[in-house]
Amino acid sequence: MNAQAMLASSPLRRADRGGIAILTLDRPQARNALSEGLIGALTAELDAIAQDRDVKVVLLAANGPVFSAGHDLKEMTARRADPDRGRAYFADILERCSAMMKRIVRLPQPVIAAVEGIATAAGCQLVASCDLAVAGAEARFSTPGVHIGLFCSTPMVALSRNLAPKHAMEMLLLGEMVGAEAAARMGLVNRVAPAGAALDEALRMAEIIASKSAHTVRIGKRAFYEQSEMNLDEAYAHASHVMVENMLARDAEEGIGAFVEKRQPVWVGA
């Protein structure tokens, strides 16, 4: 297969706009289901971006009317013919998907989801795993596994870390579709844009973030997730340590100096 054909068949597309990397799920014919190939492509791209200091923000979007329908159930169901009824495969693909979701959380750069259409099951998990999310007005979200005898346990991990417990349990137990405005009230998304304009609004947010010190943003994102797993005393002690180190960074010195001198800062990324 030549390079052009390989690009055309890829389940993921990347475009760079200044310091913003736009990753687009590109399996519209399969409702952008998270197949082995798409999980692998996302993992590889996130690993590359983590090492790329030119990338300051990542946007995650999708091609077609569905953001992502979750795991590729056809791909998974085919493995029921395995001697172990698919047990080893199911464990492996879920571990790989979970590892990809954790890469988003642990990526040095902020990740913003731009959601149009529906995001269900692991697709909803993908949105919840991002640091920020913008939904088009007609976007809808659900964790509908309960309808087919498969509780959305792995999506539950991301949902329970973003939503109030009763909101998360409502989505998980009822499996109903949640509209964009309700998703914003519940904390699953940050903002609702006009239908079709989620990517534009996400880009606007990304450009604001990209104008800040990338070094400071990386410090802040890491510290946010670290302290969230600690008790109150540990969190304050950790945050104080992080802030001391941040104060000693060249970008903090430059930013504070620029504020005092009433000029625009010139970031050096350290």
From TrEMBL:
Domain of life of the source: Bacteria
Gene Ontology terms describing biological process: fatty acid metabolic process
Family statement: Belongs to the enoyl-CoA hydratase/isomerase family.
GO MF terms, alphabetically ordered: hydro-lyase activity
Keyword match Cytoplasm: no
Function: May play a role in fatty acid biosynthesis and insulin sensitivity.
UniProt organism field: Enterovirga aerilata
Name of this chain's protein: Enoyl-CoA hydratase domain-containing protein 3, mitochondrial
InterPro entries the record matches: ClpP/crotonase-like_dom_sf, Enoyl-CoA_hydra/iso, Enoyl-CoA_hydra_C, Mitochondrial_ECH-domain
Keywords: Fatty acid metabolism, Lipid metabolism, Lyase, Transit peptide
Keyword Lyase carried by entry: yes
